[in-house]
Write a structure and sequence with these properties.
about 375 residues, alpha/beta, Aspartate Aminotransferase, domain 2, Aspartate Aminotransferase, domain 1, 2 domains, two-stranded antiparallel ribbon, globular
Length: about 375
């Protein structure tokens, strides 16, 4: 039985004792920054993604910015993306000097609506950043058909999608640039961190430069800087956590799928009709079930709902408020009503607890609390 007196957060990492011991070993070794553990994690990730080259970084944000820079995106260029994501997805476009162009989202999948993408392509469009929301991939066939038609680079924001698949192929094992996050609430984590799946040796060379101040080394005392890089490298401490997490990735994702199925069973077939709320797409073929979203009916004030759930010791998140409604983006000319689906969902969405150490009883507790608020 679930302990109804204990606080249930919306997410919680699972860390085994072997991983804790591995971190302690790194601390004792004296080699704390990028070293053998980073190299080992990159090798494991490359194998996981079918042998494609992979480089790790200290976040899943800089990975997208670096991909844009490798692709030559800069001032005067436009990059199409979704207004339904964490703000980093759009911020990185501006960081390169380019302009973000939004296309509204699909009301069911919450991914970018590919029917709306072609309408905003111009002669200045150079790339598209789709987001695989909650680990549910975009329609990859259509996405890359559009990219090929207009000769666009694709930087997949797969922050939430490690272990997700498209028609039997892992996200990251094909396509163009693919960016993953290992932030603490992801399906596997390094505390903070991320990786970028690349296409060839030249892109790897540039990625390595951009992540460490633009430096190229030769011999014991040869050093040069010929691009403007940053300080984005992953530490061996973080990589040790990542290596421990990789051992459990399949297990973690299977447990998430099992819990998601139990959510659907507990809500029942008539929940949406009776409550006016919207459940996620029940896709157990492609999704890694990073998160389980619930879109509240408009009669419900989200903050009040979240407080009522908190009073029952159940923590919720919300992912995400529409990017273009933040003050910074309003000051760049974006206004209410431009992307109505993203705006509606961003106002009413909540994220229910979903993490591998949860039990079916925890799910039943959450669903019971939700129903008491909505029915």
């Amino acid at each position: 039985m679930s302990d109804t007196t204990a606080f249930l957060p919306f997410t919680k990492p699972t860390i085994d004792e072997d991983t804790i011991a591995a971190v302690a070993n790194v601390l004792r070794s004296g080699w704390l920054t990028s070293g053998p553990n980073v190299q080992a994690l990159e090798a494991q990730l490359s194998e996981y993604f079918g042998g494609r080259p992979v480089r790790t970084f200290n976040s899943g944000t800089c990975t997208m910015e670096i991909a844009l820079r490798i692709a030559g995106i800069g001032t005067g260029d436009e990059v199409i993306t979704t207004p339904n994501s964490w703000v980093a997805t759009a911020n990185v476009i501006i960081e390169t000097g380019a302009t973000p162009v939004f296309a509204d989202i699909d009301p069911k999948t919450h991914n970018i609506d590919l029917d709306k993408v072609e309408a905003v392509i111009t002669s200045r469009t150079k790339a598209i950043i789709p987001v695989h929301m909650c680990g549910l991939p975009c329609d990859m066939d259509r996405l890359y058909a559009i990219a090929d038609k207009y000769k666009l680079r694709v930087i997949e924001d797969a922050a939430q999608a490690i272990g997700s698949t498209w028609k039997g192929k892992r996200i990251g094992s094909f396509g163009d640039f693919v960016s993953f996050s290992f932030q603490v609430n992801k399906n596997i984590m390094t505390g903070e961190g991320g990786c970028l799946v690349l296409n060839n040796a030249e892109e790897v060379r540039l990625a390595e430069k951009y992540r460490l101040q633009g430096v190229t080394r030769s011999g014991l005392d040869g050093i040069d800087v010929d691009v403007l890089g940053g300080k984005y490298n992953m530490t061996d401490i973080a990589a040790a956590i990542g290596l421990g997490q990789m051992k459990h990735l399949a297990e973690f994702n299977a447990k998430r799928a099992s819990l998601a199925k139990h959510y659907f069973d507990c809500f029942g077939n008539d929940f949406e009709a009776s409550s006016g709320a919207e459940l996620p797409v029940a896709d157990f073929e492609h999704s890694n079930w990073h998160m389980f979203h619930l879109v509240l009916p408009e009669r419900i004030h989200r903050a009040d709902f979240m407080q009522t759930m908190l009073d029952q010791k159940i923590g919720l998140g919300y992912h995400y408020r529409a990017i273009h409604l933040f003050t910074y983006y309003r000051e760049r000319g974006f206004t209410d009503g431009m992307f109505p689906i993203a705006e509606r969902i961003g106002k009413q969405i909540v994220t229910l607890p979903l993490f591998p150490s949860m039990t079916n009883s925890d799910v039943e507790r959450v669903v019971s609390a939700v129903k008491s608020c909505l029915l």
